[in-house]
Specification:
The protein has 191 residues and is mainly alpha-helical. 61% of the residues lie in helices and 4% in strands. The protein contains eight helices and three strands, in the order H-H-E-E-H-H-H-H-H-H-E. Strands 1-2-3 form a three-stranded mixed beta sheet, with no helix packed on it. Strand 1 and strand 2 form a beta hairpin.
């Protein structure tokens, strides 16, 4: 859920890249291009095979090393409710993109000072920044469902099988036994 803190940074980058160059295409076509780059790949993934949350950039915990609790969490992420949440959050972000496009002329002078004024490149970079925005919204939205689940409901969930994890989730990165080393702390008692 901490990744949600990066959302404003990527939206700001998207705004700056939308301000690059003079519009050469109709507004609706530019918005469609940026939205397609930023929404479609992640929405498709979340609807078909959701992102495997036990991973960080380039590294993923092997499914066979997951605890029963972690496998239960994956059960909660791979639900119709999460698919609806993914769709709703994508629509919400497209509304935000519309607002960013409307205010982008206000930051055009700022963008001119340090960015090349190639509109096509600006739209591509805006799309990629919007993709990152979408990523850092979609994953926390998926995980939020887990955080609001009651303990009794969670306890009743059957852990997802290894085959289902590999079949139903998008696992990106090198698969490792541990992502972070276990910390061991020795406590010495004083007499």
């Amino acid at each position: 859920v901490a990744g949600l803190a990066t959302l404003p940074i990527f939206l700001l980058l998207c705004l700056l890249f939308l301000a690059v160059g003079e519009p050469q295409l109709p507004m609706w076509l530019e918005l469609l291009l940026v939205a397609a780059i930023g929404v479609l790949p992640l929405l498709w993934m979340q609807l078909r095979r959701p992102f495997y949350i036990f991973a960080i950039v380039g590294v993923a915990l092997k499914p066979e090393n997951l605890t029963d609790k972690q496998r239960k969490i994956l059960c909660l992420i791979n639900t119709k409710v999460n698919r609806v949440l993914a769709l709703v959050s994508s629509v919400l972000l497209i509304a935000v993109l519309w607002q960013l496009y409307q205010v982008s002329p206000l930051v055009a002078n700022f963008a001119k000072t340090f960015l090349p004024q190639w509109r096509g490149l600006g739209l591509l970079l805006a799309g990629l920044a919007f993709l990152a925005s979408n990523l850092f919204l979609q994953i926390p939205v998926s995980v939020a469902r887990v955080l609001v689940t009651k303990e009794t409901e969670f306890a009743a969930i059957e852990p997802l099988s290894l085959e289902k994890i590999k079949q139903n989730f998008t696992i990106l990165g090198v698969r490792v036994n541990k992502i972070l080393p276990q910390s061991t702390v020795e406590v010495k008692a004083e007499d």
